[in-house]
Design goal:
Largest sheet: none
Shape: globular
Number of strands: 0
Strand content: under 5%
Amino acid sequence: FLSALILMIWAKKSGLHIRFRFSPGRLKKLLAVAIPITITASLHPIFNLADTLSVVPTLKAIGFFAPQNAFGCLSRSAMLYALPVSIATAVAASVLPAVAEYTKKQDVTSLNRDASMATRLALVISVPCAAGFMAISKGILNFLFENSSNYLTLVFIALSAVFLSVGEVMACILQGAGKIRCTVIAASVAIASKVILNIAFMYLWGINGAAISTSASYMVFLAMLLYYIRTSTPVRLSPSKHLAKPLFCGVLCFTAAYLASMQFSTFLSIIIAAIVYIPAVFITKTLKISELNQIFSGHKIEYSNR
């Protein structure tokens, strides 16, 4: 309520006049766009719902000891990987209007530029989080919850942060390009795979199977979106910029965090990993200082080539 109130005040001060008009035709057009976008953006809570309905009954069926405690560990891990995703979702939302505009103008150069910037920003945010979750999962859980039982669930679910963060950006690019149906298909397949793999993997690996099924389903989601991006839009993402460089920086972050955790506390290990990771991002030009200046100066994703 407070957020909405602040936005209304800002809108009034900026001279924006909003008039509410209702008609069945407009509502139908709005829902035709809003429902598919909402489904795609709601993957995380839908996956959580799938876990809530299936994890405990399945663990009980296979004779797993203390299924409620195991589900609690999975829920904590899911909460942690959702943090970078929430930031990446905001990045994705910011690029959607620009993509729609450039698609309408058929400005392929600007479209690729902004899509690349949004994708790399999502990677820069999510990759170190996943690396940290994998390198010092036990320390992080002890630091936050004073309980690191079943810490492997965080290790196995960590890559979900990357897959879903980038997936949200890819979905917004497709939506901005008018390919909303593609995102719905990808989201539907991801949800179906989560439900099927959840039960199958828990029979194989217990509670860790639920974490693995989450990462695998998000990977399916991202892979389908990348396919649709390639076949349905003029956007072309460089493997060097969007895979090799972020992966290299992520490996450095993982190594720094893991080695530091052998000698220092979890908090200091995170600081040391950040000290290693942040310069690597700029040295490898995964992200440029000029791009950050554009973002923090209040400009949209679009930036100068200078």
